[in-house]
Amino acid sequence: MAKVTKASAITKAPLSPTVSAVISDFVSKLAEESTVDADAHVRLKKALLEDQSADAASLTVALFGIDEK
Amino acid sequence: MLSIEKIEIEDFRGVRKLALNLKYKNFGICGPNGTGKSGIVDAIEFAITGDITRLRGSGTSDLSVRVHGPHVDAAKHPNQARVTLTARIPSLGKVVTIERSVAAPNYPKITPTDKNIEAVIAELAAHPEFALSRREIIKYILTPAGQRSKDVQELLRLDHVEKVRLAFQKIANDARSKASMAKTQLDIATRDLLQALGIPALSKAALLKVVNERRAVLQLTPLTDLLAETDLKNGLAAGPAVSTAPLRKAVATAEIQAFSQAQQILISPSFGKSVVDTTALVKALADNTPLLKSVRREVLIKQGIELTEDDACPLCDLPWDTNELLTHLQEKLSLVGEATKALDAIKKAIAPIKDALITFEQDTRRLISIGARLDPKIDAALVSGTLQQYAEWRQLIENICGDPNQLQKALDAFTYIVRPIPTPTQQVISAIVASVAALPELSQEQDASAFLILAQERLRHYRDTRAASDAANGRQEIAKRVSDLYSARSTAVLEGIYKTVEKDFTDFYRIINSEDEGKFEGALKPSVGKLAFDVDFYGRGQFPPGAYHSEGHQDGMGLCLYLALMKHTLGNKFTFAVLDDVLMSVDSSHRREVCKLLRSQFPKVQFILTTHDPVWLQFMRTENLIGTSVNFGSWSVDTGPQVWDHVDIWKDISERLSKNDVSGAAAALRRYLEFITTILADNLRADVPFQSNGSYDLGDLMAPTLKAWRATLALARESAQSWGNTSAQAAIVALEADAKAKIAKSLSEQWMINKAVHYNEWANLQPKELASLVVAFKDFLESLRCSNADCGGYSYVSPHKGDRQALRCTCGSINFNLILKK
Question: For strand B628-636 and strand B640-644, is the pairing parallel, antiparallel, or unpaired?
């Protein structure tokens, strides 16, 4: 089989305004209600808004600071 | 989003070669069915997304972009089939060229190379709702609430919101499951500690009491408190480990009793019933091939979602679009709901069986440990073997939900775990029990020492498992709070969004139905997994849109809801939409209002609208909705759509006449006049005799149109006279005279009495004779148009129904009263 070159990473499209509104509201309420500690809040904010993570594994790491696996 | 300047199409679908200049303006495409309009929509979609929606969906399993994207004569040369789009991306202020070939649909040539441009195109490609047909738009209206919820969520890009919700829910479920497991371990550790201490319930006072009694025997200082670091055997000379410490008869006896209880549970009727019930569930799954296939698929899809992290396949390194693949997998996962239900039921049934087996295994290990510490030791290899088997069976049962390929082995395991323990193993167990019963009592000092060593070891284990349990409970609590908060906030925000969309929808619909439904109200009502949609019906209450409203009104609702959703979804980025015959059945009296809606509410959106109705196109043009347009007169497989340029028709006829092509010029004039008189007859509310086949030729249309024009001018003159408006009266008299002269020149009125000048005979005229007629028609038509260059629209009678009130044009430059003073 011929060697296949990996494609360059596809630029991530920004979150849509609707999604962004939902996530931003959640992240701010998370801090307001002190649902999680400050470190977890920073990690979750980054995971949800910057990395656009939506899988349980990534969000578990963000929430608890450890890989639960 | 983007705005298109031009599109060039080669050997794609029904098009051989075609270039359309949209000039970033709204663009109309008109032509009878089968002339290639939708091919242009396909080309735009393909250029942006690399896909053609029409080649997917039900009934299209044999179709593909690669095979059926190229023109039928270029099927073997997909590299020839290409679409090039030149567009501007307003948000970036950049012009981009996207060139895409059917041979490599996923590798467009995008110029210039720019990550931000790629991101915009990636977003469009992921959500191609910018191009919608009537069938797709009406799905927001006439659909079950559950499906509407999915469709609207897709349009609002809410799949990501849902994915995050599911992820947090999974984290909460996992945390609950881990907390439950930690609790089981803590219960076992507590029971072990109680056995070692010989007390019925755990309390600091009870523990210190029994410990200090032993410490007193050993003349050790009594413990005054029990802290996290307290060592129960503090002060005891470093003695033997638990495994070699003397066996305390009371503890060993208690542990043997615990083992016996655990063993009895496995052969008890209640446990047997649990096993039978669970076996039935698993067997039902194993026997249901489609459901089993669905379960296997779910497991595979879940694994796939977990592994879809890089931008290429981990096996062959072929590149893939991660977002597209994840979306695809999530969609597939949503289709295996029955499988999820079956797995959840099995998981629930398995839980108590698993707990009983874990306890039994734990107690068996204690029994083996006792055997090893007896003097002489009892070889418990057979018990270990049995323990190993139970552990394997438990693993098989636990793995049912994770590996549906092992169902038969799990079913076998269910039959094994309720059988009595094999006799040879039972004999070893009996030997251990007998040996413990025969143990001599230890001396008081020996017993106290062994007590403290074992109690400390069990206390250490208890502390560890309790810490683990506390941590697991803490995570469970946080995960639940986070999951609940996300669900609550996303629901609240989405309700707000739906309210906004609902208001926009209502406002838009009122614009296009101001005459008869000015107080219309629409209501979007979200609930779990559903989005109900009710609309007001003339103040009689709220009903589903399909209940009483006509098809035309439903079309209007579909458009309004789509526009409201797009406005909210994309905000300022909503700059482009392709509406493919979307307004097919909109009531003709509402067309002008639809144009007004699009023009007034979405001035920055470039609409590309296709229609098979030339009157509709003319409406769009006279209402200044579209800046440019193209007419497809006909289509052939060799040539593709034949473009008939509205603006250049007179030039075309003139060129044909200059080449003595009287026949071609006559045909073009006739076709064009048929086209334009259709529009004029509608504008002027001419009394055209009804044709049941809906086909009207020039003979049917011209005379009623001329009559309507004359009658309208006469009515306008009488009205001006009745109101004493002399200047208007003079202008109308001049118009009437002008019309009379121009109509006379066209000889149209003589068709009925002189066959030689009938349009059927135009092909037999001399070039000069036909040229004279062409000039007459052109002059006449010009006299019906507004002289304002920015308007140029044909006059029309307003309103479209009811008493005639005014003769006007879109810009208002032509505006004659048609109401007589009473």
Answer: antiparallel
One-letter amino acid of B352: P
Q: Is B268 exposed, middle or buried (0-12, 13-18, 19+ CB in 10 A)?
A: middle
**Residue B248 gets which letter from DSSP?**
P
The CATH class, in words, for B3-152+575-644 is alpha beta
B312 contacts A13? CB cut-off 8 A: no
Map out the domains of chain B as residue ranges: 3-152+575-644, 157-245+443-484, 649-817
Q: Where residue B417 falls among pLDDT bands split at 50, 70, 90?
A: very high
* pTM score, whole prediction: 0.59
Tens-place pLDDT, residues B84-109: 999 998 888 899 999 999 888 888 88
Tens of pLDDT, residues B20-40: 988 888 999 988 778 888 888
Better-scored residue on pLDDT, B518 or B273:
B273
Chain-centroid distance, C-alpha B720 = 58
| B226: region left, alpha or beta (phi > 0 left; psi from -120 to 50 alpha) | beta
* Residue among A19, A36, A63 minimizing CB distance to B161: A19
Q: What is the pLDDT of residues B138-178, one digit of tens each?
A: 777 777 776 777 777 777 767 788 889 889 998 998 899 89
Q: Which two tokens stand for residue B787?
A: 């002289």
Q: Are the C-beta atoms of B245 and B196 separated by less than 8 Å? A: no
Q: Which residues of chain B does A25 touch, with a Cβ-Cβ cutoff of 8 Å?
A: 489, 492-493
Q: E strand or H helix at B481, and its extent?
A: helix B444-512
Distance, in Å, from the CA atom of B709 to the CA atom of B816, rounded to the nearest integer, reads 13
Bridge-partner residues for B322, per DSSP?
none
ipTM of the complex: 0.88
Residue B333 CA, chain-centre distance (Å), reads: 13
Pick from A26, A55, A60: CB nearest B489: A26
**Cβ-count burial of B102 within 10 angstroms (0-12 exposed, 13-18 middle, 19+ buried)?**
buried
